[in-house]
Fold each of these.
Amino acid sequence: MINTKKLEKRWYKYKSKKVLSSLSLVASIPILFGGSYFLYMDYLKRDNLFLLSQIDQTKITSNTNQSILTNVSQEKSLKEVSKDVKSNSSHEEVKEELSLEPVIPIIDMDKEERVKRVVRHKKSYKKVYKKKHYAQAKRQVKAEVIPQVKKSTVQPTQYLTKSEIATVSREPQVKKFKKINLHGTSHNYIETIHKKFLKSNKPREALLLAKAYYNKGDYSKAEAWSLKANKLDSNLEESWLLFAKAKAKLGKKQESVKILASYYKKTRSSKAKVLINKVKRGQI
Amino acid sequence: MSSKFETLKNIFVDSVNQENYVELDSVKYNYDILESSLDKPLKMVLLFGKPGTGKSMLLNQLYHNLKSKREIHFFEAPILSEKEFLRSIYESISGRQIPAKMRVNFDGLLKFCQKLKGEREIVFLLDECQLYSEALMEKIRLLSDTRVIKFIITLHKTENEDVIAKEHFKTRIWEVIELSNANEYDLELYLQKKMIQKGFVEVSNMISKKNIKYIHDFTKGNFRETNKYLYTIFEIYEYYDINEPHKISGKKFSKKILEMAALKLGYIND
Amino acid sequence: MKSIWILFFSSTMLFSSHLSTLYKLYEKQEYLKACDYGSKYYTKNRKNEKYLTLYGLSCVETNKLDRIARPMVELKKSADGRANASYFGTILLQKQLLLQALIDKKEIYNLHLPKTSFVLSKVFALFIDKKYSLKDDIYIFEDSAKSEFTYKLYIKKDSKNNRTYMILDIYKNDKFSKRYQYE
């Protein structure tokens, strides 16, 4: 005998489940279509993200796919700076020159290649973020390293970066974008690390100092400090490489190669090998 | 007062009964082959198929049809003890009862059979032979070699049995009859005939082709499963008929009850 | 059944971004490809100012300079967009003026247009200041800032197509480097 009442209840449960599932399936079709249409429309209206470009320029790219091109903001104001005015010449016309440079947009590649979900609170978050960091961003833009090609009529940091100029004038391309190392070459940094080293006497700090001097262009000091780091820890590969690089920069190519070769003999390091080739070819 | 559904329900009680035999085309076809094989010089006939496809029913039907015409014996249940088996064989052939303590010597039996060669032809129907041991099967084979005894055996169709069947009996002159599950058409006929047999014509008309398809989806055309399913269905019908007759209409087969029965038997997961 | 839904769902999610492709091409400095790609999907992305900017910047580096006219007129929503529009406008104007000067011999001295770092602007500035040497109808300029660069500007007539081109050749260390061909 079967408990028919119970069975009937079970049946109602089963039936309701069935109906619900079929309803939800039917309902999801228009939702899907609507959702995808909406997403598509939002994708077309991407103007508010453009405003982020001024803030994004301050982010340091390290791990993410996000590529940052230095933003060159427009210089519209007229500048009265004489180019060829000599101190003795009188009443030379001060040329008023207007310079226009393109503003290359910042593209968030991660975002572009993912699904764009409409999140309204994101917009408000952007506004908050914008306000918060705009001031900071402004300060950092001014501290940027100015590229070489310069017109004296124009304020610094207004030009395209090295790579952009290189692309225009077909120079050997800067393929990798440099990390914007705000601390790398400031004198404060060197002093700080120097102090640290005096306290701790660690080879790592010495190596950092050496790197800082190398980046600054002070190759003799870089050489000295990398040697010091090496004396403290002879297994520190970087100290070897940096020492050799600094030497090569100072023109002592042969010595540099010798050092690298002896290091390579000991350790069979691939980096050393690569560096040897570079030094030989003069590609440092 | 018992509901008509109770009677209906009992139609579908699973039993190997000659009364319950339903003649379908496919079944008749197999039956004819089986019957004709008895006249062929075959030693053994293998009837195999999945459980619930009607092997026992077929043997049963054969036995009842032929028992008056020829020497035929039906072992419905397998006799697993070799001793008992040989005893039964001998007793069936000789018609004599052997005292309980006496054992039948196989060689003696063999010789006995060989003596009967040309005079008699005895048919043994053995059901559920997958349970017999290999040794016993060998003896059965040897007995059939005498050409005095014919064996019709049934097996469940499983992977192993298939292999065994081939291995052991490959070289024998065999008739192999395979029984399979019914298709939708046969299933419909089966249900209709079963009900009409007992006089439930209007009930059999209630079942639509869609219902048959639904039933077939679950039972896969297996007679045993179908019997079980229909039994459950009519059991539920019986309950409603007695307690809540307003819930069932007399015109169409209730899909609700079909689903309820399916839930109960586990065909549908809830 | 389930798999169909997953497929359907995922297909709506997978949006190939034209902007990212365009940017990648621009980054790789495949300007011609970028310009053509941008032109192909222009209509779909015309409301995206970043897209328009990149498209314009790519086409500036090609011979199809005239294409920057479209984004120029459509970049107007943001300040950066307007700045870039002015940039494109300046370059276009400078190209037109040079064409007039070379073909129609129009006098375009004493004009003060904004300067850009694009080579055509440099040449224009030098032209205005008459800092060139003329030889066989070829104007030769020397880049004061980058002494290794020399520019040659001249008119070329294609008799087959009956077209006139203004050619700007860039030489680096007296070796031919790049050519811009404008109509």
Note: Confidence is low (pLDDT under 50) at residues 51-92, 115-121, 145-152 of chain A.
Amino acid sequence: MNTAFLTVYWRDMIRFRRFKPMLFSTLVQPILWMAFFGIGMSSNFDRFSQFVKLPPGIESVDYLTFMAAGVIAMTTLFTSLFGGISLLFDKRWGIMKEMLASPMPRTHILWGISLSGVTKALIQAALIMSFGLLIGVKFFSGYSAVEVLISLLGIAIFVTVFSLGFLFLSAGITMRLESMEGVQGIMTLLTMPLFFSSSALYPVEGFPSWLRAISVVNPLTYLVKGIRYFAIGEDFFAMGTHYTYSIYDVLLSLGFLTIFALLTYLFAWVTFRRAVVT
Amino acid sequence: MNAIIEVEDLHHSYGDFTAVNGISFRVHTGEIFSFLGPNGAGKSTTINILTTLLPLQRGRVRVNGYDVRKEKKRVRESIGIVFQDEVLDGDLTVWETLEFHGRIYGMPRAERRERIEEMLKLADLEEKTEERVKYLSGGMRRRLEIARGLMTRPAVLFLDEPTLGLDPQTRYRIWKYIEKVNREGTTIFLTTHYMEEADSLSSRISIIDHGKIVITGTSEELKNSIGKDLIYLETVNKEKASQIIGSFSEVRGVRDSLRGLEVSLEADGQRFLPRLIVSLEKEGVEITSISLKKPTLDDVFLHYTGRELRDEGPQGKKVAMRRRRGR
């Protein structure tokens, strides 16, 4: 088997470790979200939601726990969307020429970069969960050790598939553009609607129908669903909304994310095949 | 002789701008072959097609016996490239740079590690193994790039303007290094717009201008093709001077050149020059200036293209700009 993609991965991880400011911000940013946005919002939202009548005997999941899943999803989205940008530097410093002129199949460049993006996303997800548990996020409450392990695996699978989808998209877009400004512009333009039309921070049940329609095709919605299923459970109340997930919902969500990743892979594959860099 | 690169009737255009306009040549195994020409002449475009970075539009190109259109992977395995612009990741160490290259070329680990040691020695970078590339000097970086190009034992090494932007001393060291590499058996295809570079390194040279090969041969052949010695002469009365000079049997030809007349000689110019001056003065032709020299590749270039190699002029710049836009 040709393992050239591992070489591309190896180099990208060296750069990740070596750029200390980048490494620092990658690791600290999600924690800051939890610490500031999470605690700030939850102290307010929990005050409001206590007025919502719940069936007797049921306790609502607090906001911090609810949004922790959303922060994992959001961080994965950001990291993945911007994950392809290192290709722009490779184009600018010419390393892309070195790779394109080598006998290595071009898809290996794509796989190497994507693998490194997934690694970063998984590290961040682990950090958010660890820090979250420290500040009072009630993930995996009442789970046995085996259930925790299965849940962690489930979350990792969802994060990986989702992350690949957006890394392929990001790599494809970056390969087609020349300037940093262009790439950043497009990525920023994409993140806003994706993020706020999803269920990451609040229930989509209260959305007007047009926004709801967007949330239905938004991959982020499905990632959040998967994480909540594994981290919180299949039946819970949060922010005055009753959430029930069946195993079919979860598999369907994973299926949606897989199809999304396949489509973006196709897009990136075509782009890489045709790419001419001189 | 064995041809390791065969190019027939190669054309390439960027939009409506023709960068390469029907060139054919062969590079023999073991030689250093140079493309000499001004910026925008089509040198880099040719090298990019030969190294599979640009798709072949028209013509036939074989490298190491493989077709660049159909057997890209084989071609890529056969060659090493040193690009015109620096292609280095400044944040990797020297060792990592070579390791990365060996791995994407699929070299097995043991061979790779051994070869890295050899390359570090060849490039005289053994002391710098763990140094980040960005802290190396310009000359060291170039040597590292050349070592990297050689690492996979390519049949042909492509060098696109290998000494562009280096100071004369470093340039000289790089030349010695290229000669050493060639002596050890690597065929080298080189592009340059430095006449001295083509002259001192090459087995054979193609002069290229406006996407066409003007003439090909050894440095000696090219120079001899325009005469044994050259006299450049400036005078007000070009026509009369030309007539008188043409009547000597030692004179091979008289041409209008940029500032006066270019006289090519069959005989030794040092003995001929005094006689020429005397006879011109006798006929009343006033000489503003006169110089005698052995032909250089610059003269060869001037002779065949009517332009000086160093003189890019507004036209040269325009071509370079269009090329950049085309990319």
Note: The longest strand of chain B covers residues 3-14.
